[in-house]
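Below is how a single chain appears once it has passed through the pipeline. First comes the sequence as given, then the structure the pipeline wrote out for it. We keep one example in the README because the format questions we get most often are answered faster by looking than by reading.
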Amino acid sequence: MSLSKYLLSRLGQALIVLWAAFTLSFLLLQMMPGDAVLIKYMGGDFALTPEQLANIRQIYGSDNPPLQRYLSALTSTLTGDFGYSIDAGVRVTALLADNILPTFRLAGLGFLAAVVLSFTLAFLSYFSPFSWLRRVITMLPSLFVAIPVFWLGIMLIQMFSFRLRLVPVINPGPWVGLILPIATLAVPISAPIAQILMRNIDDVMTRPFVAVARAKGASLNWVFWKHVLANALLPVLTICGMLFGELLAGAVVAETVFGLNGIGRLTEAAVATLDVAVLQAVVLLSAATFVTINLVVDLLYPLLDPRLRKNAKAV
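Resulting structure:
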């Protein structure tokens, strides 16, 4: 299969995944109990009449049949229009534009910290001169993956903000305020990356080409950096793409715990007010990000593994 056909095939699969995510989220959100219009306009200073509430539902289209709402939402989404937020009274695209950059910044820095932490653990476990230290480092990823994000965030606040007073949580600087959220994201995300990297390094070290290189007089460090690491990284690339969806979910929790503005706070408010249009957009945005990252990973594989390029040419 040529690269162009492979790319078109992957793009087609990505579009199917996005359509499935949109449809499933639409069905689930429509089954949520409650009425966003009632939550917004029945309390406080509004106290609208049933006729006025019916007019508002007609304006937002929430009283239309489900199939009509689905087709209308799908058609609008294809043009980049996610509708209006009932709670905020503005376009959903404007809300996303105001909140997407902080979330992507947090997720990106958290992922970078997770990669650094996982590689550090893997290298320490391999180069450690003490067997007991290697065993301890090898057990750390299992501990990290079992820690809930919200619990870790609360514990970091208790320790580094309230007890040690190293990182302020009240009016911190723009970058200082990201230290604890980034650590909260990095610790659990680094666990599967470190586990797979350690396992791959041990597996590649048993391959015949490593023994041949060592027999020719190559040092262990040279073999590791020249051959072992490159072969051990390929499965890690796949798991990194798969973990990005979990990273976005962790960013939502971290923003809620630390009171940061972003998609997480926007989602929290939308759930509380049953703002279906916002929730639909957040789900589709997360799915699109996940699909894009995995598509990029798939396209990088032939560039990193010469065997895949040879197979593609042979086919």
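Residues 99 and 112 are 20 Å apart (CA to CA).

See the next section for the split statistics.
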